[in-house]
């Protein structure tokens, strides 16, 4: 339990009369730890709970399919693809809204979203026809897109660059935990013997329980979620000042305004598009595993109920891998190597699923599932962290995150159509594409790592070496400031 009593004598040495946002500040390590733990215990849990609630709603669709949803609604492979397409198309269309986190007060904005997506989730339990299912998925996507792609950007406003990886992996690691929970929950629900089809129980029991807490959680968000480090209600005025000044980049742009120089820089920065390509490759598996992993396991000969249960352990293992990868990369700093290693593990998993064509070798194929999940989720979370670490300014962060989210999410449309029932039980096409995309991550991550390392060395040679903890004003020049150094 954290003692909210502030350590004595806050050490923040500067002359505020000369400059309200100085570059030369000295905040003690004790104070830094105190403020960081405040955010860890008062901010991070709220954002993580929201992320789990939002992710649970979409992940149940794959479990419902193995329980007979497509059969009972008489959906063919083409129609089922559009059930998935409808969500991802709407999600992609509204992911530009990441930039609204920069403009609107988060505690009001997100509290309203909680109510909206909770209501949409609860409505899924009442679907009786194909159009109704499509409509519910569209509404769910509309409200979740606004939160899902903005949450990583939001956390980057509160933590230093080398603190962000662990917190980001904890947040994005909630995705496999949510999948783990959803699979375990569906396993139990599917065993209910009643008058309705098993898949209906997944929605009737699952979604209202997911939707109601989301709505009830809205007041918690309204009163507990801070808009920025400088306005956090759980910090004193002096702590708010320290929370802002301890960050390694200083952006003097007003909280509710965009800096259009940074927007242009974000749109023209090649690094953002490499991160987007990596995210595109990661997201193919991120969405594909959520939608089709129970189906792939069922095709190995397991019953629908057992397939849902067997999907949970790999997801939990991938969460642990996310935390381990983040801890190592925060301490070591070479995020490119972590993404590369994770991609190698994921590629090996997909290679097993593609090459093992003997249906009787279920152990080998199940091992492939483990490797694929344990490789993809850490690569995805560290890549997003890496991108946010190297953005100069809040407006550029918002633009970079929007580009990554919009174009990177498009691979969800690919994964939604390359696991048709006709390709079962091995689903070779979908697994082979996953192997190719995951292998491409290796090339992209290594290339970007080398490029950033060379740029840092060039700046050291031309402008002199700098301390990685020095504060840099990125308002005008962004990450082109001669004192800015990229995390590689």
UniProtKB/TrEMBL annotation:
It holds the Pfam family MFS_1. It is found in: Membrane. The keyword Secreted does not apply. GO terms for molecular function: transmembrane transporter activity. Its main location: membrane. Keywords: Membrane, Transmembrane, Transmembrane helix, Transport. Residues 1-24 are annotated as: Disordered. The keyword Transmembrane helix applies. SUPFAM superfamilies: MFS general substrate transporter. One of its GO terms (cellular component) is membrane. It is a multi-pass membrane protein. The chain crosses the membrane at residues 39-56, 82-101, 108-127, 139-158, 310-329, 336-353, 365-386, 398-420, 426-452. Residues 1-21 have a biased composition (Basic and acidic residues). Belongs to the major facilitator superfamily. This is Major facilitator superfamily (MFS) profile domain-containing protein. It comes from Penicillium angulare.
